[in-house]
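Memo to structure team: turn this sequence into C-alpha cells by end of day. - J.P.
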Amino acid sequence: MREQGQLSLVLVHPSYPQRHHSQEKKVIASILEKSVYRATDLVSILNEDDFLLGLFNLNKSGTDVIVDRIIAQTNELKQQFGIEIWAGGFNLSPNKDIRLETVFDELQLFINSPDIHNEKHFSISEYQHH
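Reply from structure team:
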C-alpha cells in the first residue's frame, strides 16, 4: 500500500441452502470477477465458503459502490438457488502497526455482526487499529 493509498478488504459470505455447492460457488466467483472492473482489484477464495476481495486505492464510498453492485447482481441467486450473499469489509489506511492476521480475525467477527444483517446485506467500515 502506498503512503496515501487505501485498501478495502471485503469478505463475501454466501449462505448456501445445502452442503455441496460447487456449481453455485463457481457462479458466485464469476459474478465477483465481473463486478470488480479494475486490473488491480483481487478476488480470491478464502476458505470452503467465503471469498475475499482486495480493492486498492478506494475510499469507503467507492467500496460501497462495488459491494452494492455485487449484492444487486447476486440477488437472482436467491431466486434461482436459495443463496443469500452477505458482505462485510474494512477500509484500511496505511499504518505500520496494522497486522493483517488481526484484520482477518476482526473481519470474520464483523461478517457475523448485526451490522451486516441489514436490508442491504453488507456494511463497510473504516478500520480502527486497536
